Each structure stands twice: as C-alpha cells, then as structure tokens.
Amino acid sequence: MSTVITPFFTGALTAAVLLSSSGAWAQADEARAKRIAGGSCFLCHGAQGESTSEAFPRLAGQNAEYVAKQLEAFKTGQRKSSAMNEMVAKLTPDEMLALGKYYEKMSLPREEAKDPQLAAMGRYVYHNGNKFSGVPSCVSCHGMGAEGAANLPRLATQFSGYIHNQLKSFNKRDRTNDNVVMHVVAEKMTELEMAAVAEYVSSK
User: How far apart are CA 120 and CA 114, in angstroms?
Assistant: First the structure.
C-alpha cells in the first residue's frame, strides 16, 4: 500500500525542518557569541554586559542591531577607537549580530538618578526639547522609556557619564558614524543640557 504525501504534509514537514535547523543555528550563534564575549569583550564591558567603567558602555539590554551596526563602524574605521578597531578586525557580520543578540538578552537593574534635580531638568529636555534654543525633544526617536528603535541605542540604564561624553562627541563632530540628526541636535545643546539628559535617561 503506497503512502500519498499531501502538499499540506510536505509543507508542514518542510516548516518543521526549517524551524529545527534555525533553532540549532541560533544556538550555534549564541555559543559563538558567548565565546567571543568571554575571550575579549568582558575585559571592558563586564561578564554580563554591566561594564567596569563609565569609559566603556554597558551592553546588557542594548539593541542587537545597534550593537552590530557599531561593531561594523569600528571595523571600517567610520567610528574611531584604537582598542575597538583592533578588537573587531576579524569579526564577520554574522558574529557582530550574534554578539548583539547575546547582549540584548541580558538586563540591568534600574538605578535611581544620582542627582535628582539634574535629572528633572533632563526629563524636561528629553520630552519637550528647548524651544528657545531649537533643541528638539529626544523622545520621538529614543522612545518614552529611552529604549530606542532597533537600530538606535537603548539609553536606559546606560552610564550617564558615557552618554554625556557621546553627546559631546556629536557636538564637536568627533563622532560622525551615526545619524546626522545627532549633530544637529547636539550642536544646539549646552553642557548643562547634555549632562541633564544623560542623568535622566540613565535612571530609566
């Protein structure tokens, strides 16, 4: 007695095989990312993406696509860092995305602002901008919870000092690899506004 394989059965079987192989591929990617992170990234960014210093960004919970985008920028030299340029030299695009997904799964506890008054000012600028100097609000791109879109940075729980330094880099156009909008925004911000916004989002 012959078995009739219906199109439905064939389609279901194909889907099951693809799902199984994609799951295995994801596990392999995660294992590879864990090896890379444990081999070098942890030295500056911490074993759980918590970072060891405000000089180095926290990667825990960071948007995967954004991490991959920055790693590619370091590799091509669009973003300058003697340490990072060397670290990423041999990474493939797949490995960069795998690292992004690896860190995206991690999380950090929310911390209270160290300077509540400064954070209160930052909250206003973040949500409303400054109509007197032309600074636009940050919320339209980075979201109410400072989580950012997939290809934008998650600012919540990031070190305030690191965010402040990046805003200054955009202000001086030392950092040129990201959206030109950041140059337009940062060049209009005062030192106080940059520090205030950084303090506010770090406690989100």
Answer: 11
